[in-house]
Amino acid sequence: MARISTQFNNFSFGKIDHRTNGRFDLPIYHSGADVVKNFFTNFQGNAIYRPGFESISKFEDCRFIEFKFNNEQSYLCLFYNTKIKFLSYDAGGNLGFVQSGGADLEVATPYSLAESKELKYDQNADVMVIVHPSYEPRKLTRVSATNFTLSTFARTADPFTGAGDYPSCVRYYKGRIYYANTNNKPTTMWGSQVADYDNMTTGTNDDDGLEFAIADITEEIEWLMGGNNSLIAGSSEAIAAINGGTPDDPITPTTVEASVTNTDGSNTTQPIRKEDLLFYIRRDSRACDYFSYDLLTESFKSHDANKLSYEITQEKISRLVYKKDRDNLIFTLRGDHALLTLNFNLEEKIIGWHEHFAGNDDEFHDIS
Known about the structure:
This protein is an all-beta fold. It is 1% helix and 41% strand. Strands 3, 4, 5, 6 and 9 form a five-stranded antiparallel β-sheet that branches. Strands 10-11-12-13 form a four-stranded antiparallel β-sheet, with no helix packed on it.
């Protein structure tokens, strides 16, 4: 019996499920692999060694939140139990803890470690608004390169006045700041006045603040995200698109409409934007869906990015990070503390998954 060897020179589809074994008739069979471990693939079909890691500090469990000041200077906020420390990094590759008085800068917070991992946030210039349903909203402010503050702030006509009325979600979008999901009103959203983020006064003028409930969902709003034409709200029940009646119309107090889309619901993970698409993790935490507006059908649609690689997420996934560089990979964490990457290129119709392990029994706990 002669032994037949088949040469593969295209790995763009990464790791594919065992159920595709023997499907020689499918083009994906010749562009994927049974194991893609500690390698990246790209849309050109290359398999690339994953770079190694550098130890910056002894591990201490925390929550990563990125604070982008400008293209030259950014920070990684490390939320520990009731405090924040700040890693500064710049375009020159310099990385280190922000110093104050000869020691690492620390800012006190009311959040436990578990609560820190539940925070939702959004940033505008040098101010980041942070929300949690157990606490009044706060602003994390970059005062200088070596000074940050975390404080409550006053809002005109404040709807968030006490326990049960603190929001769980926040998002800046087209001139307003939006909040959503208090314990007392889990499907309700609030929008500030236009260009006056701390003024929540409602009215009927186009630039007044607004309050509205998404009537077609009963499960709480888990996140808010800005789309190209609509503000998007996610819940475990469904995804809703909020606009002024159509994606071309701005949101105003008298025109605001929320339309439940023909998509699966999501888990609590904050979505990401990649080009014109929104990526979110489905409510079962097994699949990453991508979401877009279809001009031909005038409807919002989602598609499964795990259709051919469902086995790789068996331990479930959380967190989404998009790193824009020559490979444009999406990163996520798996439940067994492995790191997964997704090579996605809609134009080339390529979706390729890879898995990564730290080695020496180390584990991945957070990414940014």
